[in-house]
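Researcher: Final request for today, and then I'll write up notes for the group meeting. The sequence and the SMILES for flavin-adenine dinucleotide follow.
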Amino acid sequence: MGVRDKTVKELLSLLGEERVLTGEEELLLYSYDGTGEEFLPWAVAFPESTNEVVKILEVAFENEVPLVPRGAGSGFTGGSLPVQGGIVLSTERMNRILEIDRDNLTAWVEPGVVTGEFQSRVESVGLFYPPDPASLAFCTLGGNVAENAGGPRAVKYGVTKDYVLGLEVVLSNGEVITTGRKVVKDVVGYNLTGLMVGSEGTLGVITRVLLRLLPLPVGRSTMLAYFKSRYHAGKAVSEVLSRGVIPVTMEFIDKSALEAVAKHAEVEVEPEVEAVLLIETDGPNSKGELELCSEVVVLHEGSFRMAESEEEREHLWRARRAISPSLVHLAPTKVNEDVVVPRSLLATALEGISRIERKVELPIVCFGHAGDGNIHVNIMTDKSDSLAWGRAMEAVDELFDLVVGLGGSISGEHGIGITKSRYISKQLSGTVLELQRGINRVFDPKGILNPGKMGV
Ligand SMILES: Cc1cc2nc3c(=O)[nH]c(=O)nc-3n(C[C@H](O)[C@H](O)[C@H](O)COP(=O)(O)OP(=O)(O)OC[C@H]3O[C@@H](n4cnc5c(N)ncnc54)[C@H](O)[C@@H]3O)c2cc1C
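Model: Predicted protein-flavin-adenine dinucleotide complex:
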């Protein structure tokens, strides 16, 4: 019996037919993610406990078969794709909130809990979990931890790594470790929790997460600011911050992104508007802070509209979250990059992107978390047209050179996965890459955990 048949047989005897998919049509459902790339696994396994994850890893380890952890498959860099076949381990059935500890402001969760559902749960008891990727309606906390996901609120509240206190992880040989504790401070040993966050499933399978929570802030004020160029919007972002105001959110949307979403979300776009910022403040002084932001907007030749009701605010946010899916109508292929630069250089980066757009003669749609200097740059192209595809790849290359040259990073939140692994050496030195490969070998000596990802 070949290794594939042996692996599938062992998984079936472990979990039964109900919790192991092997038919081609079913496997197709787990063969893609937000990149649009497709790779078929041999089998998809649905464990319900840490113990079952251990057993699945023992099968993979013994047979030396690739194992790819998967949350909701919403990643934008191919992290959950089984590029070398093998087992996809779906955390769909490990979706319990195990504890919400109000005295310690923490929660224990399983990795398959959907982020938005967790947020609603903690908010219902007056607590707050800030990381809010735009995919929060369907992405999972395990996927967020493995990608170190960010979101619009990162300007004030940081990203996923700032909320992970500890983890339970199953290593490639099936051994279980825990990292971190339910304490505010802990300096014993290397920071393995920090190492696991953002490791894209290459170091172990996360089976439990200990999260830090905050009290739910009071007060919230929102406005939309309109600018005559990307550059003016970028300048306003850095000036708001330099005046000592830290809004919860400063989301940037350029004209093409606005036009793409307008049809779906009933947003009006004035002809002279080239860029928009969605700015939100919170806390007892949220109104005062937003007024200060509006002064900066006017100083940069912009105009603004305050959201007068919760309904209007929700409408603005729905439009923001609909941008990414709406872009599919603009061109057959969307190359989606999430570069980040020091916030003071945002306007310079946006100017550089406009230059690249003119050079490659492809539409480049920009939106994203401007308050973090993190812009989603979407190069609209057609993969089946070799000329257009070649120009898109040229744009990616120039974009990465631009941001690395400005002291920025080629990914602010989507990670490296497969789509960015060939560019990683633009940012990380050979020595750093070798150290990363060494770390990977210690955790995964047989190279079975999510192979082919992150350049390790
Ligand atoms: C419309 C849309 C909007 C988005 N907006 C944002 C945004 O604002 N900010 C942002 O950061 N991202 C965003 N994303 C990207 C994506 O949602 C995030 O990367 C998210 O964290 C992925 O979660 P997931 O559950 O889908 O994970 P998956 O895509 O299934 O997996 C992502 C990675 O995590 C690993 N992984 C998953 N679970 C585990 C586990 N239990 N143990 C170990 N490794 C694991 C996988 O192997 C893979 O490498 C967006 C995506 C979409 C489609």
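Model: Residues 67 and 378 are 31 Å apart (CA to CA). The chain has a mean pLDDT of 94.
Researcher: Thanks, that's everything.
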